[in-house]
Task: structure prediction
Amino acid sequence: MVSIFNNKEEIAPHAANIFIAAAQHAIQKRGRFLVVLTGGSSPVSIYKLLATPQYKTKIDWNNVFIFWGDERWVALDDSRSNAKMSYDFLLSHVDIPKSNVFPMYKEGFSPEEYALEYEKSIKNLTGEDGQFDLILLGMGDDGHTASLFPGETVLQENDKWVSAYYLESQSMYRITLTAPIINKAKEIVVVTFGENKAHALNQVLYGDYNPEKYPMQLIKPIDGKLLFLTDQAAISSQ
Result:
């Protein structure tokens, strides 16, 4: 499903309302909301909005559990950290217990070791079904999502829920949820906008199936919903 907005500014309130509705439904039904946040610049306006009194008071943050879709293997106070960005614009402004937040980085671990620990943390909350209530994703202009980059072996992962690897093109380690765990989610929302995303978005949605080149095509929920939130610039430029 694709929702097209006039501009990127219109996306934020729609995404924030989806977040709130998913949280309220999950907490009412099961007593907790398991959500995966995304990094990059695309969700900043969404997080800012969720941090405002108008929005944050609609959620029982004591029963929200925060994970991330991917992370650069950098310290949590590094400006490149997805967790830091999420704290700066959202998590530091809401009353969520620290024990409910699971950053994708920990001192004293190698990336590969922490990928195993992160998967254990997920299983401790979800059991073997590994189902999140909501996963927020972005998409790069190369068609990657999370740290599922074109041509990388992580794209063939069928068993691990979390994987860490060295990304040569960026000269750094990345840690990421894999397609199998992402596709278990009840709801997946992809936020992507702007002219620079137009080519990849068109290929992902309407092109031949080629996930080695456009990894976003791997995201196909088993039972859940998949929604793209985009703008006219990304559509009209195709």
